[in-house]
Amino acid sequence: MDSTIPTAARLVFGERASIAGEFVELLASHGVERGLIGPREVDRLWDRHVLNSAVVNERIPMGARVIDVGSGAGFPGVPLAIARPDLDIVLLEPMARRVEWLSEVVDTLDLPVTVERGRAEEKVVRRRIDAADVVTARAVAPLARLSQWCLPLVRPSGVLLALKGKTAAEEVERDRAAVHKAGGGEPEIIRCGEGIVDTPTTVVAIERVESGPPGVARKRGRKKH
């Protein structure tokens, strides 16, 4: 295995660590060229972005359907797809140039992932992509807005996993009422990757406690790109 792949990445990705390495190479070259990743982020791609995203997989059940809202350069959806090929993942992104990038990445890495263009808050998008067991979002919006956008995409008893930083506790206190109003249960702050990565990923987990909107049916079939 490539010696440039960190030990933590080998633990998280196992025999698929080389695929994660390919993703890092794509980000460091084409990702920077296309303005998806800042040049200063290149040296931090593994720790700050790829592993930070991938360790969240420990909170996702086997075979779950996952919608990654606002995937951007591919976080956390692409690392999750590499680490967990058993997952049925949809990458949802509103910007055309990022959708093009995500589609190229999925094809290049041969990932069983669906890429969709759209915004989580649009009813037509919600009907098109249906509900999921887990919805993920990283650096998309404050918790109040994120709950309004994402919880309708979560099936009842499913969960929204919002990757947050140091502001997680502050956001939970400030936006708790908005989360409940959007159909979420009590927000729980969890740490993913403890004992594996130097800086565990802070995640706010919110269970969907209300039924989904009419006409949004859950489909379990895996869609290919």
TrEMBL record:
Give the enzyme's main class according to its UniProt record, as a single word: transferase
Q: Which GO terms describe its molecular function?
A: rRNA (guanine-N7-)-methyltransferase activity
UniProtKB keywords? Cytoplasm, Methyltransferase, rRNA processing, S-adenosyl-L-methionine, Transferase
| Localisation | Cytoplasm
EC nos: 2.1.1.-
Q: What Gene3D superfamilies is this protein classified in?
A: Vaccinia Virus protein VP39 (3.40.50.150)
What are the binding positions for S-adenosyl-L-methionine in this chain? 70, 75, 120-121, 138
Q: What is its main location?
A: cytoplasm
**What InterPro entries does the record point to?**
rRNA_ssu_MeTfrase_G, SAM-dependent_MTases_sf
Q: Would you tell me the Gene Ontology cellular component terms?
A: cytosol
UniProt-listed SUPFAM superfamilies: S-adenosyl-L-methionine-dependent methyltransferases
Q: Which family does it belong to?
A: Belongs to the methyltransferase superfamily. RNA methyltransferase RsmG family.
The entry's function note states: Specifically methylates the N7 position of a guanine in 16S rRNA.
Matches recorded under HAMAP family: 16SrRNA_methyltr_G (MF_00074)
Which NCBIfam families does the protein's record reference? rsmG_gidB
Query: What is the name attached to this protein's record?
Result: Ribosomal RNA small subunit methyltransferase G
- The organism is Saccharomonospora viridis
